[in-house]
C-alpha cells in the first residue's frame, strides 16, 4: 500500500515536471525563436503565449517543489516512524496532500497573472501594428515587490522547502545507516552462531555413525545424518534472504527519493542564490549597472538547471527501478532487442545504483560485501560478463 502511495507521488511529480518543461519552452525559448525569425505571425503571437506561459510555469514549479517536499516527509515517516506511518500514511491524506499542493500553487501565484500585459505597438520591422509584452504597474510597484519577491517568494519557494528537505533527508540518511549497521550485526551474529551449531551437530553425527554403525551401512547412515543435520540450516537460510530482498527494495525506494531530492537541491541552488542577489539589487544594496550582465547570465543558467531537474527524473527512475526499465522497454519496443546490449544497460544501471547506495548502506566496521546475497552477486557479475561472452560466440 505504501509503495502505491509513493508511486502516486512520483506520478504527480512526473506530470508537473512535464508541464514545467512545456511551459518553460513557451516562456523561455519560443520568444527567442520568434524574435530571431522574420515571421510577423510568430512575433505577433509570442507575447500572448508568454503572457499565459509565465504564470503557468510558476504554478508548475511551485507544485513540483511541494510535491517533492511531501514525498520526502512521506518517506521520512516510513523510515524513521514506521509504526506511526501505518496509521498516518493512508490513501486519503496522500491525495489531500497532492490536491493541497495544486491548490496552494494556484493561490500563491494568483498575482502573477497580473504582472504582464499585452499591448499594441507599431513595429518598425514590419511597418504595422503588432502585439508586445509589457510589465504592469503592479509588477513595478515597490511595495508589491517587497511583499512578493523579498518575503513571500523567498520563504515559500526557497527557505522553507530547502530547510525541511535538508533536515528530513538528513534524518533518513542517519536512520538508513543505523538500520543497516544493526541488520548487518544481527545477520552476522546469527550466521556465525548457526554455522557453529551445525558444525558441532555434523561432527557428533559423523562420530556416532563411525562408532555405532557397521561398515555395510555406514554410507547410508552417514548420508541420512548429513541430510538431517543440514536441512535445518537450509530452511533457516531462506528467511534471512527474503528479509534481505524486502529491506533492499525498501532501501532502493528510499535512495531513489534521496537521489530525486539531491538533484532538486543541486539544480535549484543557483536559483536560490539569484533570488538573494535580486533582493539585494531590489533594495539598492548592489549596483545594478555593474552586475546586470553577469546576473542575467546567471539567471539563464539557473533556468536551464531548473529545466534539467525536470528532465532528469526519468534517468533516476531507470537507475533505481527495474519495473520502470521493463515498462520503458515495452513502450519503446526494445523488449526483444539483443540481450547483450540489454544486459549491458541493465548492468550499467545496477552499477550506478550501487555506487550511489554504497555510502548509505555500508556498515561502519563490516565489509559491504556482506550486504549482497550470492544470487545478487551472480546476477551482477553475469550481467557484466554477458556482452563479452556473446561477442566471443
UniProtKB/TrEMBL annotation:
Annotated ranges, domain G-protein coupled receptors family 1 profile: 1-317
Keyword terms of this UniProt record: Membrane, Transmembrane, Transmembrane helix
CDD domains: 7tmA_FMRFamide_R-like
Any one Pfam family match given in the protein's UniProt record, by short name: 7tm_1
Gene Ontology CC, one term: membrane
Predominant location category: membrane
InterPro entries documented for this protein: GPCR-Ligand_Int, GPCR_Rhodpsn, GPCR_Rhodpsn_7TM
Transmembrane segments: 7-36, 56-73, 94-114, 150-176, 255-281, 301-320
Tagged with keyword Endoplasmic reticulum: no
Compartment(s): Membrane
GO molecular function (one): G protein-coupled receptor activity
Keyword match Iron-sulfur: no
Protein name (Swiss-Prot/TrEMBL): G_PROTEIN_RECEP_F1_2 domain-containing protein
Lineage: Eukaryota, Metazoa, Ecdysozoa, Nematoda, Chromadorea
Amino acid at each position: 500500500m505504501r509503495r502505491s502511495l509513493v508511486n502516486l507521488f512520483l506520478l504527480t511529480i512526473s506530470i508537473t515536471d512535464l508541464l514545467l518543461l512545456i511551459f518553460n519552452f513557451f516562456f523561455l525559448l519560443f520568444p527567442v525563436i520568434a524574435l530571431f525569425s522574420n515571421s510577423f505571425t510568430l512575433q505577433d503571437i509570442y507575447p500572448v503565449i508568454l503572457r499565459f506561459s509565465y504564470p503557468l510555469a510558476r504554478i508548475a514549479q511551485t507544485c513540483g517543489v511541494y510535491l517533492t517536499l511531501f514525498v520526502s516527509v512521506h518517506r521520512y515517516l516510513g523510515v524513521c516512524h514506521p509504526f506511526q506511518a501505518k496509521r498516518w500514511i493512508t490513501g486519503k491524506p496522500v491525495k489531500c496532500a497532492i490536491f493541497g499542493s495544486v491548490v496552494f500553487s494556484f493561490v500563491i501565484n494568483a498575482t502573477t497573472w497580473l504582472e504582464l500585459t499585452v499591448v499594441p505597438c507599431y513595429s518598425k520591422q514590419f511597418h504595422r501594428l503588432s502585439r508586445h509584452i509589457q510589465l504592469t504597474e503592479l509588477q513595478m510597484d515597490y511595495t508589491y515587490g517587497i511583499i512578493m519577491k523579498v518575503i513571500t517568494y523567498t520563504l515559500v519557494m526557497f527557505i522553507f522547502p530547502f530547510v525541511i528537505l535538508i533536515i528530513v533527508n538528513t534524518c533518513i540518511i542517519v536512520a538508513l545507516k543505523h538500520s543497516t549497521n544493526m541488520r548487518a550485526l544481527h545477520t552476522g551474529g546469527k550466521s556465525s552462531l548457526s554455522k557453529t551449531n551445525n558444525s558441532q551437530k555434523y561432527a557428533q553425527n559423523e562420530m556416532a555413525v563411525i562408532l555405532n554403525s557397521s561398515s555395510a551401512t555406514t554410507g547410508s547412515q552417514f548420508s541420512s545424518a548429513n541430510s538431517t543435520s543440514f536441512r535445518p540450516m537450509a530452511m533457516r537460510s531462506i528467511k534471512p534472504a527474503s528479509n534481505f530482498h524486502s529491506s533492499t527494495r525498501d532501501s532502493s525506494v528510499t535512495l531513489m527519493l534521496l537521489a530525486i531530492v539531491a538533484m532538486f537541491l543541486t539544480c535549484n541552488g543557483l536559483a536560490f542564490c539569484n533570488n538573494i542577489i535580486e533582493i539585494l539589487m531590489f533594495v539598492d544594496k548592489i549596483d545594478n549597472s555593474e552586475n546586470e550582465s553577469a546576473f542575467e547570465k546567471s539567471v539563464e543558467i539557473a533556468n536551464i538547471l531548473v529545466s534539467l531537474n525536470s528532465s532528469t527524473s526519468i534517468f533516476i527512475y531507470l537507475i533505481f527501478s527495474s519495473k520502470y526499465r521493463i515498462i520503458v522497454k515495452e513502450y519503446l519496443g526494445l523488449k526483444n532487442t539483443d540481450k547483450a546490449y540489454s544486459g549491458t544497460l541493465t548492468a550499467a544501471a545496477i552499477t550506478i545504483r550501487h555506487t550511489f547506495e554504497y555510502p548509505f548502506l555500508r556498515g561502519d566496521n563490516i565489509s559491504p560485501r556482506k550486504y549482497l546475497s550470492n544470487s545478487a552477486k551472480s546476477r551482477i557479475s553475469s550481467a557484466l560478463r554477458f556482452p563479452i561472452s556473446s561477442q566471443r560466440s
